[in-house]
Request: fold
Amino acid sequence: MSDNQHAKYRKLIEAASALEPVPTAVAWPCDEASLRGALEAQRTGLMVAILVGPKARIQDVAHKAKLDLGSTEIVDTEDNEPAAAAAAVRLASEGRAQMLMKGSLHTDHIMGAVVKREAGLRTARRISHCFVMDVPAIDRAIIVTDAAINIFPTLEDKIDIVQNAIDLCHALGRPKPLVAILSAMETVNPKVPSTIEAAALCKMADRGQITGGVLDGPLALDNAIDLAAARIKKIDSPVAGKADVLVVPDLEAGNMLAKSLSFMANADAAGIVLGARVPVILTSRADSVTTRMASVAVAAMVANARRQNVLKAVA
Reply:
């Protein structure tokens, strides 16, 4: 690993490791990558793992991969993914877990369990996904939202998507994040709906309907993250060229942006789902251990911020 590779992730992991470890239900850690990532995050002090799934299968994976489970708790379930997802969500609903982590099961199974109203994890907020991306060429971690949950979000959905991202920035220590609402251009064009929605979101922020961040849009990707591009186009904006958050028009755009950064700019993407009562750590089977730990670190900082807010509320 070079000095620059993962530098932003290392800072996140160090900051989160200084906090109290967060009890985390790990749903279906039934392959080496997911089990190793959970155990490594526990060893680093980011979380206290509760492994949820068929006990014999988890122990077999650990044995074959020469992983020491030690005293790690295992909640035994039926040998199928939906059962493990439901059991993990139940631990969060009961307060035994303050975070959920996706193991090697399909994303639909864990998210399906999270969004069930009877599970008790829904809030008034729309659930949305954020990638916290470590792009070597950029001097700060960039948040891309939403690239995994909301396929064609409405303007009403985007209010929550933006607010979730702003709240994430606060948990990561950015008190006034700069939020770029992306489109294909930086001018409002009635023929391009995303430009109209971007302008509406910015006005909502002006009127206090979205709080805690500085919004501007529509902005094209180049003038959202590159100061030189913004200057060439003579864009007078507190966000242009310096954005912390990139809000995409829809899931397809977000997915392509995130994967372009990953595969063409050597970036890594730590995934988290927000808007539920607990943060949900979404990992990919292709994620490195470092990326998995960065995802846990981000979620741990969110969980800690929520814990602090609760303590302030009852003080």
Remarks:
- The first helix runs from residue 7 to 17.
- The chain has a mean pLDDT of 94.
